[in-house]
Q: What sequence folds into this?
């Protein structure tokens, strides 16, 4: 028997759950793209996008996904033959690095593996003795494959301690609107994110924020192409400059509604909600792991992102658990990503829970209870009672 009929929860780490309010805002025919309400809403939309990133600098909106934003950030700042440094904390660091390589940029990777943070002293040392002339350091805030969160102010401090002029470019695809991020205060030069994770809007839009130092790099960057050029988009003379063509009409309405929701709740409260829900997930998982082989991928709490949690089942039952949760109970967990190759039997050891954006305590408690039921049903060894630990966190923090 399946008990999955009713409201389901897509708990993969992006795309995230789209709120009804956002869907309703998008449910209309396209408006005039030359005059009227849509062009008029842009200045306030741009202001809200800057506010959610805690920056007074510039932002561009692209009709693309995160991969496109990766390329946009690189093309506006780099030239072929330039060298960059990537301290890697998971699959997404390597993905961004690969896009740079295809552009003709030379990439040096410092690989910190799949569970461990960047060694900031080693990063400073590498930059101090830099004989490669690195133009940029690429960091991923929360790596969605490992759920490891990088201390971005510490990366800034490591670059500054070396007295190095490289741009600091940060991927906040999985963390913006979930974990605290303050672009200007943290000294981030370029930051990127997409619509479909913490910003609660369907996939299709991505954004690059950049400061004036990064914009000066744009003067000489020869990787820049017409479609990714951030100049006309961030400083438009006419409405169509924002998008280099037809505007993504319905997405803009959805995004407006999502940013309104964030502003109504308050960004600090949005961050606190994600932190509390993440602590509930960790409390359950840490308890389950006191028997059997289940464990969280990131061992130290302060290194865990608040929007996604990567699990190691320690057995091939992880895939069975995912399927059970989806088929029997309407909860879709994320596959493990970047831990191993799909043809490796260990592929079935990993899974992830997305808790980003439009998520509440009842959704998380429901998801955790469903996971506990699933572990029992598929025979994934664990200590029963993790849900009680999560409930205690919610009771104490709400
Ligand atoms: C989702 C994600 C991406 C890629 O985004 P796409 O929209 O799938 O191209 C890049 N970086 C991080 C950290 C992500 O979570």
A:
């Amino acid at each position: 028997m399946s008990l999955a009929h009713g409201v389901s929860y897509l708990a993969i780490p992006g795309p995230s759950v789209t709120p009804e309010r956002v869907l309703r805002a998008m449910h209309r025919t396209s408006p005039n793209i030359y005059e009227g309400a849509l062009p008029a809403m842009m200045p306030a939309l741009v202001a809200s996008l800057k506010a959610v990133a805690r920056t007074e600098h510039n932002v561009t909106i692209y009709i693309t996904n995160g991969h496109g934003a990766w390329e946009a950030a690189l093309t506006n700042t780099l030239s072929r033959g330039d060298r960059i440094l990537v301290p890697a904390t998971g699959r997404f660091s390597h993905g961004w690095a690969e896009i740079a390589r295809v552009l003709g940029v030379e990439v040096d990777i410092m690989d910190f593996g799949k569970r461990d943070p960047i060694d900031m002293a080693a990063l400073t040392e590498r930059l101090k003795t830099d004989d490669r002339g690195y133009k940029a350091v690429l960091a991923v805030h929360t790596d969605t494959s490992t759920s490891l969160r990088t201390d971005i102010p510490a990366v800034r401090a490591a670059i500054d301690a070396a007295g190095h002029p490289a741009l600091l470019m940060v991927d906040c695809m999985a963390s913006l609107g979930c974990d605290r991020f303050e672009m200007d205060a943290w000294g981030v030069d370029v930051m990127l994110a997409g619509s479909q994770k913490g910003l609660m809007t369907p996939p299709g839009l991505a954004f690059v924020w950049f400061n004036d130092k990064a914009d000066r790099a744009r003067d000489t960057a020869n990787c820049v192409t017409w479609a990714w050029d951030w100049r006309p988009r961030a400083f438009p003379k006419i409405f169509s400059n924002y998008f280099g063509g037809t505007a993504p009409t319905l997405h803009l309405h959805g995004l407006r509604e999502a940013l309104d929701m964030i502003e109504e709740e308050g960004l600090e409260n949005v961050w606190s909600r994600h932190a509390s829900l993440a602590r509930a997930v960790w409390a359950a998982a840490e308890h389950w792991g006191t028997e059997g082989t289940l464990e969280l991928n990131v061992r130290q709490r302060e290194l865990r992102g608040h929007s996604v949690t990567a699990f190691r089942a320690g057995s091939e039952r992880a895939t069975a658990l995912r399927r059970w949760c989806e088929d029997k109970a309407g909860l879709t967990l994320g596959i493990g990503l970047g831990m191993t190759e799909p043809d490796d039997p260990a592929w079935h050891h990993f899974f992830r829970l997305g808790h980003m954006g439009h998520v509440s305590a009842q959704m998380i408690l429901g998801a955790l209870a469903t996971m506990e039921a699933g572990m029992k049903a598929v025979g994934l060894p664990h200590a029963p009672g993790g849900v009680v630990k999560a409930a205690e966190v919610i009771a104490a923090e709400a």
Summary: The radius of gyration is 21 Å. The chain is about 40% helix and 15% strand. The longest strand covers residues 134-140. The mean pLDDT is 97.
